[in-house]
Amino acid sequence: MKHFAALIQQLELSNKTNDKIAALVDYFGSAIEKDKPYVIAMFTGKKPKRPVSTVLIKTWAIELTAIPEWLFTESYHAVGDLSETIALVLPPAKTAIDKPLYQWIIELAEIGKQNDEKKKEYILNAWNGLSTAERFIFNKLISGNFRIGVSNKILVNAIAKQSNIESSKIMHAIMGKWDPSVINYQQLIQGEHVNTDNSWPYPFCLAYALDTEPENIGIPKDWQAEWKWDGIRGQIIKRNGELFIWSRGEELVTDQFPELHFLKHELADGTVLDGEILAIKDGNVQSFSTLQQRLNRKIIHKSQLTNAPIGFYAYDILEFKGVDIRSKTLQERREILEKTILGLVTPHIVSLSPVIHFETWESLAELRLTAREINSEGIMLKKMNSVFHTGRKRGDWWKWKINPYTIDVVMIYAQKGSGRRANFYTDYTFAVQDGEKLITIAKAYSGLTDKEIKEVNTFVNKNAIEKFGPVRTVKPELVFEIAFEGIAESKRHKAGLALRFPRIARWRKDKKADEINTLDDLRQLLSAT
User: Fold this and answer.
1) Rounded mean pLDDT of 163-170?
2) Which among 173, 215, 515, 522 would be 20 to 30 A from 101, CA to CA?
3) Is residue 422 within 8 Å of residue 78, measured between CB atoms?
4) How confident is the model at residue 147 (pLDDT cuts 50, 70, 90)?
5) Structural domains of the chain in order of their starting residue, each with its CATH number
6) Cβ distance 444 to 428 under 8 Å?
7) Catalytic site residues?
8) Rounded to a whole number, what is the largest CA-CA distance in the chain?
9) Which candidate, 454, 472, 471, places its Cα nearest to that of 463?
10) What does the DSSP assignment read for 13-58?
């Protein structure tokens, strides 16, 4: 536990990728073997079942510290993280417990089966034997909410450097289902378990945003152009008579999309398709807000099947007749994909993502401007001779998105962030004008520089009007331009509208609050889309 706590502190102290990789290389080179698979599991989002509710650990912490609940709540709002707050307010440990990380995880899984009295006894005893840094880790193990700022790519690059194993093989190895309690570190990173599970997915091939004119990446005939669809990237896997659907977030979502289950009977065994899960009605791709009606549903109602029917646009084929064909060129894989999709009996539900034929970059640029008419985000550019690599590789695949929508808004609420931003107001709520009043339209927390964040923080401290827990109402004076990808009707918001991926484009210091956009402006935008 001490070793892992030290690693977390190192990772949180630096924003530099190389420093994080160095810390991980050192950890995996010196940690005890049984801890390593558990650490990889935590960093890749494989959370164990929560053994104790956060309500109980908060109650026990307040009892133990004998501080008023209002003071604990204020501390929580200032820190921004419950696990860290508890670790900080607890009295100094009276003993020292030295157990490896894996043993704590196993014990917590067992204590989760006990009654509340035994849970309390175990938790209080643990707190009394751990340092502040270790308590923080222990509390995170209870909540299962580890957000360390380490991407899968950073983790994989570190393990590859430490083990001298190719990073693409490691990425494949840590995806899918595996149990850290029954696999050791070497077995895991060497992929000895890969494809023993019929459902095993492949790492996704990703694209960089095009940051130059397309003429600078080569001649048109060397590139395949496709529409960039705004749905859920997924892999459809058929092996040994079973069908599995994985999202890009490594979630198994098979049961959410029954319309695609016919592929269990029509796809050949040993087939893996890569593509986009979309809401498609009468042959037309619907907005992402329509697709949202079907996401994260345990029970799919008839009305949802009718209002948001699901389809799949196939981009690529990664496995054919049980053979991994990712090393073939895109052109070769596309030929195999076309034969596979055209061989399906059930029409329309699964289709080839259409290739956009173009002669010049200028003509493609004109077509790109029509993307929103078909609920597309722009164009994907893929090199004809590219392999299906793991993650992002600069130069092979590009996403050429259309420019986002923008509006001017005023900030009316602010809340402190978490982690490194716990001492600054970084979460903002924005409003537009609706007649004589302001009405909230979006929240955003990205897009400002560190210097601008400090300026906004100073403004909030000086101009807060009301306080609602961690939220501060501020004078409506700061105007920002926010960018977003789409707009849709929404009953969940007072404005009756929801923005897709809102973020701060720039701080409009040149504008006053009476110059912001109106709700009518947004309604007109909605009617035009």
Assistant:
1) 85
2) 173
3) yes
4) low
5) 2-143 (1.10.3260.10), 205-401 (3.30.470.30), 405-528 (2.40.50.140)
6) yes
7) 228
8) 75
9) 472
10) H---HHHHHHHHHHHHHHS-TTHHHHHHHHHTT-PPPPSS-HHHHH
Q: Are the beta carbons of 294 and 247 closer than 8 angstroms? A: no
* Cβ(353)–Cβ(226) below 8 Å: yes
Cβ-Cβ contacts under 8 Å for 398 (sequence gap 6 or more): 207, 208, 209, 210, 217, 380, 381, 382
DSSP-based three-state secondary structure for 212: coil
Token digits of residue 529: 């889309």
Q: How far apart are CA 240 and CA 447, in angstroms?
A: 47
Q: Over the stretch 288-308, which tens digit does the pLDDT of each residue have?
A: 888 988 988 878 888 889 999
Q: What global pTM score does this model have?
A: 0.70
Contact at 8 Å (CB) between 471 and 413?
yes
For 372-406, how does the pLDDT look when each residue is reduced to its tens digit (9 = 90+)? Answer: 899 999 999 999 999 999 888 889 999 999 988 99
Please give the Cα distance from 165 to 190 (Å, whole number).
Answer: 7
3-state secondary structure of 442: strand
- Which residue is listed with tokens 């979502």? 253
Instruction: Tell which residue, 342, 354, 405, 347, has the closest CA to residue 379.
Output: 354
Number of H helices and E strands in the chain, helices first, is 19, 23
**Contacts (Cβ under 8 Å, ≥6 apart) of 448:** 426, 456, 504, 507
**Alpha helix stretches (DSSP H) within 257-395:** 263-266, 288-291, 302-307, 330-342, 361-368
